[in-house]
Amino acid sequence: KEVMGVIGYPISHSLSPLMHETAFKELNLEMAYHAFHVHPDRVEEAIAGIRGLGIKGINVTIPHKVSVIPYLDEVDELAKEIGAVNTIVNESGRLKGYNTDGEGFVRSLLEADVVLSDKRVLMVGAGGASKGVSLALAQHGLKEIVITNRTYSKGEELAENCSKFAVSSALSLEEAKDKLNDFDIIINGTSMGMKPHEDKTPISLDNLSDNAVVCDLIYTPLKTKWLLEAELRGATILNGVEMFVYQGALAFEKWTGMKAPIEVMRNAVLRQLG
Ligand code: ATR
Question: Which residues belong to any copy of the Quinate/shikimate 5-dehydrogenase/glutamyl-tRNA reductase domain (predicted)?
Answer without folding.
Answer: 116-191
